[in-house]
Amino acid sequence: MKRFYFLFIAILCISIFLFGCSAKEKDMKNDLDVGMDQTQKIEVASAKSPNSALTVIDKKEDINNFISKLKVNKWNIAELPSNATENNIYKLYQKETVKLGDGSNKDKKNLQKVATITTYKSSPYINFQTKGLNLNLKVPKDVAKYLSNQSH
Prior knowledge:
The chain is an alpha+beta fold.
């Protein structure tokens, strides 16, 4: 009888462990764009004049729409073509991180640039830069078309 209870408890523990692992894996697949959903402002600039914004996206609804149309989970690492010409630059901003013990000015945090997306003319390639990370990526054609139309 003791063996039966021991076997039952062992099977129960293993099944709970495996169920937890599979749920965590599903969550990771659905949240590939972790961090982008925290964006507070997006500036769109031309590669010819990167310091002057052509468009600013700062409404939460517009930002969420922009991020959902990026289809981040379909981006693939790729080499840029040698003839790629920069087109638009997207600068993503978030509020500064609240640091431990910094209770003053909690609501007055400045926005800081956390990522940059550079698009290329007539090309489904982008360059994504964030702190310490610089990736050349191939995006779906509809995403490339959407990004090229945002500056107009």
